[in-house]
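Entry 14. Structure prediction run on the chain below.
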Amino acid sequence: MNARDLLPGERILTSSPRHWVVLLRPIATTVVAVAISLVILALLPLRGELRLFLMLGALLAAIGVLNLYYWAWRAHEYVLTDQRVILNEGIVSKFSRSISIDRIQDLTTFQGLWGRTWGFGDIELESAGRDGAELLSTVPRPQQLRNAIFAQIEARRRPGGSTSP
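Output returned:
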């Protein structure tokens, strides 16, 4: 997130992409698909140069697909500032949602067995004026982010409105 995207006087407290575990399934699928493609190409009755060319093409395609998954993962970001919770998404085009700390009414954290094992979970933010809750999915260390949000809510409710972390 760039400083130009912040409001005057706003400070970033924490920022992170989704947990790396979201990359496991696409990476595994891509590796299996390439392995199957290479086996099929090895078994086909093709000339040596053509077979090699097709195998290299499959490997380059896999590298391209893995790069797309990586950059899509990096382009999904959760940002907590002293005034807002911001969800940024997008590689080419950007999509951003923000919820003012003052409008957050409830936070719910969920971690399944895998989430507890690998250190990720979901946070559901309910805010005033919205029909549904905002879901922050696959958040690394969700309790820490939840506690940081609660700390900002409490800091803004205190007399004087101090927002120091």
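The helical segments are 24-43, 48-74, 113-118, 142-157.
Filed with the rest of this week's runs.
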